[in-house]
Amino acid sequence: MRTPSSWGSSLARFLLSFWLASVIIFVLMRAVPGNPARVSLGVNATDEAVAELSTQLGLDRPLLAQYFEWFGGFLRGDFGVSLASQQDITPLVWDRVQVSLILIVAAMVLALAVAIPAGMWLAQRPNAFVSGITQLGIAVPSFLVGILLVAIFAVRLGWLPANGWVPPNQGFGQFLAHLVLPVVSLALVQGAMLTRYVRSAIVDVMNQDYIRTARALGQSRREALLRYGLRNASLPVLTVIGVQLTTLVIGAVVIESVFVIPGLGSMLLQAVSVRDLTTVQTLVMLLVAFTLLLNLLTDVAYRLVDPRLKAAQR
Predict the structure, then answer these.
(1) What percent of the chain has pLDDT over 90?
(2) How many CB atoms lie within 10 A of CB 132?
(3) How many Å apart are CA 26 and CA 63, to the nearest integer?
(4) Residue 81 phi/psi, 5° resolution?
(5) Does residue 50 contact residue 37 with C-beta atoms inside 8 Å?
(6) Are 285 and 22 in contact (CB under 8 A)?
(7) How far apart are CA 94 and CA 79, in angstroms?
(8) Which residues lie below 8 Å from residue 211, measured CB to CB, with a gap of 6+?
(9) Which InterPro entries match (predicted)?
């Protein structure tokens, strides 16, 4: 189990990891064989056209200058120009970020809403059937769950749309209808895994001396758990939530393709298919930045839940 570090070291680790990730991603993108300008124009493009586009996009400049231009723009929220369309991708990226965040946050909220009460219930009343369901949920990938849900609720029953996306400002009812299946597909898998971790944490806490003391003083199992156990049980669960949010981001990339959702994942796959290296570079950096930010927020959450960690580091 990872031990939370001090505020300063957490922030320093985040900044260093963020910078190193930017360097690695930039170098890897430049290591891909082929001239990006020629790939963009096609194999029949003349050398003059390739040279003109390279100059226009700054591809003929020194690599160090290209890196600082890209990274500086990234920090300002300016994501540059697509090699495929030669258009500024910044507005499109921000639109896709909103879609992906809605999907990820909704899925995690639903997973926690199911996992916390289910894990607490299983810890106090073991049930082989429910435990088997959670184990099955861990084994089944989210995209397969999505396909099964579409086959049942969209194709057979016709209750929900099979795919697509409607922004909330264009009809909130349709927005929710299109959101249900992809969110449930992600949440079921994450919820099954979190349920088992919550159960394990609660069982461990219930065997502690302070819980037995509370029970000896006349408190019920539920009262002792709610009053003394939940905070301690939440510490290992917080670590797992941070890790699961990272896997949720990866799962969302696939789910967006399954349900034809215009998020970062579908944009990334499309950029890869046309070798739009500038867009791929920016989107991968966004996903890495989100993952690093989740790790930083996990450290912050530790201190909010257990102030003793802050006092121990003084």
Answers:
(1) 1
(2) 10
(3) 9
(4) -115, 140
(5) yes
(6) yes
(7) 10
(8) 205, 224, 225, 228, 229
(9) BPD_transp_1_N, MetI-like, MetI-like_sf
Banded model confidence at residue 43, pLDDT cuts 50, 70, 90: low
Contact 81, 87 (CB under 8 A): yes
Residue 21 pLDDT > 60, yes or no? yes
**Tokens 């493009």, residue located:** 45
Tokens found for residue 267: 């944009």
Tell me which residue of 184, 198, 196, 203 sits closest to 106, measured CA to CA. Answer: 184
Is 90-273 a domain of CATH 3.30.870.10?
no
Q: Which helix (H) or strand (E) holds 280?
A: helix 277-305
88: DSSP letter = B
Instruction: Report the share of the chain in percent with pLDDT over 70.
Output: 82
Q: Token digits for 39?
A: 């790939």
- The Cα–Cα gap between 163 and 9 comes to 44
pLDDT at 2: 47
Mean pLDDT of 264-288: 84
Domain boundaries, the chain: 7-76, 90-273
- pLDDT of 136 above 70: yes
Structure tokens at 51: 């040279």
Q: What tokens appear for 228 in the block?
A: 């003394």
116 or 275: whose pLDDT is higher? Answer: 116
